[in-house]
Amino acid sequence: MTNTTTGSVPSTRAGMASGIDTSARLISLAINIAVMGFILQEGILSYLKRVLPGTLDTTQLRTLAEKIAAGNTTSLKQGLLELTSLDASGTVVHAALVHGFGLVMLYGGIGVWVLAAISFMIFGSKRVARV
User: Fold this and answer.
1) What does pLDDT average to over the chain?
2) SS3 10
3) Cα 116 from Cα 66, distance rounded (Å)
4) Is residue 38 part of a domain?
5) Is there a contact between 68 and 97 (Cβ–Cβ < 8 Å)?
6) Nearest CA to 51 among 90, 80, 104, 79?
């Protein structure tokens, strides 16, 4: 992609085009990492709310979801003693993590299809004349 970007401008502007390309790539990467982290945490939280209704308050569930999303499973039972009696084997924590990552994968898949459709609309309808 960088070769296409830098090759489409005059050689005097290739450095600027490369910088813009790299900046756009890094900015979109940072935004998508943040969005995927948010989706993961909210997916875990929604699963915990559904599976553990009325056992923990919203603040405790959010704290639990944050720890699960961060991969901090060693301190889960230390901070929330109620979790030991609710999920001694860790199956709820594992299932919540799987549910959250399922939503992240869904976001990624939808993003790919949307970008593919946009690319097709922009580039797919034009025919190149052969000489």
Assistant:
1) 84
2) coil
3) 33
4) yes
5) yes
6) 90
Of 116 and 57, which is predicted with more confidence? 116
* Residue 129 maps to a domain: no
> Which ranges of the chain would DSSP assign to H, the alpha helix?
2-7, 14-51, 58-70, 76-79, 81-86, 91-119
The domain of 35 spans 2-123
Within a domain: 96: yes
Most confident of 1-5, 56-60, 106-110, 122-126: 106-110
Tokens of 40: 């993961």
Q: How many domains does the chain have?
A: 1
Distance (Å) of CA 51 to CA 66, 78, 96, 101:
17, 21, 9, 17
Give the pLDDT confidence of 44-101 residue by residue, as tens digits: 999 999 988 777 788 888 988 998 898 877 766 665 656 666 666 778 888 999 999 9
Within a domain: 62: yes
